[in-house]
Amino acid sequence: MxxxxxxxxxxxxxxxxVFMRRARRHARLYGADMPQRFHKGHVPRLGGAGILLGMGAxxxxxxxxxxxxxxxxxxxxxSMLTLVCILPAVLGGIIEDVTxxxxxxxxxxxxxxxxxxVCWLLGLGVARTGFETVDGWLAMIPFATVIxxxxxxxxxxxxxxxxxxxxxxxxxxxxxxxxxxxxxALQVGDRQLxxxxxxxxxxxxxxLVWNYPRGKIFAGDGGAYVWGMVIAVACVTLVQRHRVxxxxxxxxxxxxxxxxxLFSIYRKLARGQSPGTADALHFHQLIFRxxxxxxxxxxxxxxxxxxxxxxxxxxxxxxxxxxxPAVLFWNNTIVLMFFCLxxxxxxxxxxxxxxxxxxxxxxxx
Length: 365
Fold this sequence. Notes:
The chain has 365 residues and is mostly helical. 70% of the residues lie in helices and 0% in strands. The chain contains 14 helices and no strands. The longest helix has 29 residues. The two termini are 39 Å apart. 46% of the residues are buried.
């Protein structure tokens, strides 16, 4: 599988460099007054297109030859069918990155539509939740398993889009999650599924070469949708294929972006705002403003870049609080539920602590 990582890495790195140098004009459309903007200058947002090309090339290579040189048993028809299914959502995100004119509800419709398509063509569904009553209800209504899976697959891209706020943040979280999925997939002997996410890891590294720490290009909505769609499909497939894998493994693994999204929706509704309204009160934005400092900087642009880069490691460590126990207890539902509850409690406590300016001294640089 190392060869697949190499293929996806170099194709993505080259593609991202081309987009970085040749597609800067659209970056001027991104308003300087946007609440999510924490950088100076006009930075292209087409990193997601490079990730898609790198991952797609590796998927194609994995199944294009009949001899199966990568030993993943992944027919090219299956890999390309999966790619075609997620394309509507990803292309919608890329168009938004270029034009800034695709409304949230349309992008949500595209992700849900792609999710329904992939569930229908690949036969995916969520039939296990860890609760016997709910599982019995799903068994009586098979179509409900498809709807459940489609909501999960269609919603995760937007969760990744929410946490994609600083250089290297969402990309590194995606890499950690994919490595965890590949580890568990290999534990149960599913090399095909492991190869699927390993290709995304290589492509993401190819993007991160240019994104972190200098922030020369951003993943944009397209990148977030690639990460969200592929990871969600992999998680649903893993739980469906292997009953030994707890349905709460992907829940704990992805609890950071998922809970960030749910908490954001609650926070906005409590303030009388639409959940689709952009603001600057996400957890990573509070850390940027109230914890991260810079020792020195010659000008405002360099100071902003330094603070941007120093924000991501805080969130990497925070995400690891869920990834590590998920990998350790991937087949133990009760323990995974406990860690999900612990993470949510920790998140809310940390959020309130930062809002109230009660950050412990040891967290301040």
